[in-house]
Amino acid sequence: MRTRRGVCYPRADVSVEKKTVVKTRDFAGDFMDCRKRQRLSPETAGKSDLFDVLPDDIVVSILSKLSSTARCPSDFINVLITCKRFNSLALNSVVLSKASPKMFAVKAKNWCESAHRFLKTCADAGNVEACYTLGMIRFYCLQNRGSGASLMAKAAISSHAPALYSLAVIQFNGSGGSKNDKDLRAGVALCARASFLGHIDALRELGHCLQDGYGVRQNIAEGRRFLVQANARELAAVLSSAAASNINTHSWLMWNPHPIPQVSQRHPALPGCPLLSDFGCNVPAPEAHPASRFLAEWFDARGGMPGPGLRLCSHVGCGRPETRKHEFRRCSVCGAVNYCSRACQALDWKLRHKAECAPVERWLGEEAEGGDGNGAVDGNDDVVAGS
């Protein structure tokens, strides 16, 4: 057919032009419609986008790689808002099961029901890091002890070392129950399993247990071997991260001939070895797990008090709170700090408390008021001032 001017109509199988409406502003700032013709070549007209032809399996594989290497939650959120297909495939169980801990590292101030629901979805998909993080949040922050311990146990069954160590700390302290609920042998067994997987804090905890005969038969030589192994792993982890950041580590590997002053009379001054943290290492503290950072932020926003008469672990990288009064062990010299474990005590000693600890008179008044925890009165439960 032809128009009145004699021009032929375009054929139905070829789309040559497309009308779009573009809004522009006039000089007064008001919007006005402007119709713009977008011309398409006959070669590309009618053809589908190549992205739509990609199988879902390939897209899921790409998204899984992205989720496993995400450095912050926004890396994953930006994918969700890209298109409807990404939004549906990114929530696939395969993608969520491989998500990195930093992908769901929610800040305590941003905690909400949707964040809780997303962590639960990741945990249900089989993500062991999500199980551990949500378990710690439920057990210590939301005070849902049974559900939190179950999630940590689910991660521990999958050989998740931080979950095994956290369950060991719960057994050592009887967290969530009374002092009679402590199970030292179970704590040592969990620490041994986590140590086998290379967990540094578990190695250090097990070394101190063997040296002190705490929950296991005393073996000083074997305990010292575990401490050396823990410090060697700690140093290797710090050196590898420093090498990636181009940080000079020459001073960390030099012997310090000057003695390190010890405030406790039971521990004379010894020459410092910067190679081993339990014997005077000066390497920086290891990066805290996102779950520990969440606990620290959660209780810091509440004035640093988890409850009436309850205290936080004095090690800044821990964040664990007491679940009952006098649950944590105190420093046997000053009594001003308390720790959930020997590993936290050893780290905090070399980072901060070594310069602050000072002997004071015995603080038996508070214990005489009915303390049921690990205080200075109970000899085996004392936290030694020097590491």
From TrEMBL:
Residue spans of biased composition, Low complexity class: 377-387
InterPro entries: At2g35280_TPR_dom (IPR057136), At5g50450/At1g67340-like (IPR044508), F-box-like_dom_sf (IPR036047), F-box_dom (IPR001810), TPR-like_helical_dom_sf (IPR011990), Znf_MYND (IPR002893)
Official protein name in the record: MYND-type domain-containing protein
Entry's Gene Ontology molecular function annotations: zinc ion binding
Domain of life of the native organism: Eukaryota
Residue ranges of domain MYND-type in the record: 315-357
Keywords from the UniProt entry: Metal-binding, Zinc, Zinc-finger
Renumbered residue ranges of the record's region Disordered: 368-387
Alphabetical list of PANTHER family matching this protein: MYND DOMAIN-CONTAINING, OJ1485_B09.11 PROTEIN
CDD domains: F-box_SF (cd09917)
